Amino acid sequence: MGKYHSRMSSLPSPRRKSALAPFALVKQHLMGELSQGLWPPGTLMPSEAALVAQFGVSRMTVNRALRELQTEGFIDRVQGVGTFAAQSHRMSSTLTVRDLHEEIEARGHHHHAVVHLLREERAALALAQQLGLAEGASVYHSLIVHHDNGQPLQCEDRYVNPAWSPGYLGVDFSQTTPTQHLLEVAPWWDAQFTIEASTATAQEATLLGITAADPCLVLVRRTSSRGVPVTLARLVHPGGRYQLEGAFSR
To answer: DSSP strand E in the chain: where?
Structure first.
């Protein structure tokens, strides 16, 4: 399990009088510690039980404080794991949802994108549910192939909730990427994703210049801002051209 940074001497005494409601006192304290950098982004914070003991309040009080901090984007809570200091907007885009353009340029290579589809569609039920919309609601759909030094590296099939980016269809995605654009109009607080070794569809294989039997790395990712879905993307990479890297500590 992860370890959390703690500075117990700074916690207010349960006997100290305050005009704030108990949950607000806990919330204010945690926000102060976060702003001072006691818990860097991604750091495991004290458990609910630890906060209950230190503040001398109920678990319900602590839970309310944490819920509000999560809603406001200061923390992330993972059931069964713990509470973590949230990534900042730009830090999140770098560590969690890194833009492919940045990855390619960081290697000293040239990135360019070819837009194959950019239009408004009506959402089928399954897609509508993923984006928090009603069946038949308007969605924006883009299909873009990203190239690394002229070689197709990623087929990006993306749907966007129009409420977050009304001008999405007017963006020149040969000059910027959907990721870059959406980070500007709807900074992401969280993402859910799946990664699997699979094969491309016939259309994806053609766009990537591979055969339908070639192995691919397929990532399906849904991102949200303050709990409201922003975009759903299927990202397909030829297995021989792309390597997913990451790190963790405990």
So the answer is: 75-78, 82-85, 111-122, 138-148, 151-160, 190-199, 215-225, 228-238
Identity of the residue numbered 103: E
Domain 8-86 has CATH 1.10.3720.10: no
- CA-CA distances (angstroms) from residue 191 to 27, 106, 123, 174, 194? 24, 23, 21, 25, 10
User: Tens of pLDDT along 185-220?
Assistant: 876 667 788 888 999 999 999 999 999 899 999 999
Domains of the chain: which residue ranges?
8-86, 96-238
Q: Facing residues of 112 across strands?
A: 147
Strands 82-85 and 151-160: unpaired
Q: Is 73 left (phi over 0), alpha (psi -120 to 50) or beta?
A: left
Enumerate residue ranges in the chain where pLDDT < 70. 1-20, 87-98, 187-189, 242-250
Residue 38, pLDDT score: 85
Which residues on adjacent β-strands are paired with residue 130? none
CATH number of 96-238: 3.40.1410.10
Q: State the pTM of this model.
A: 0.61
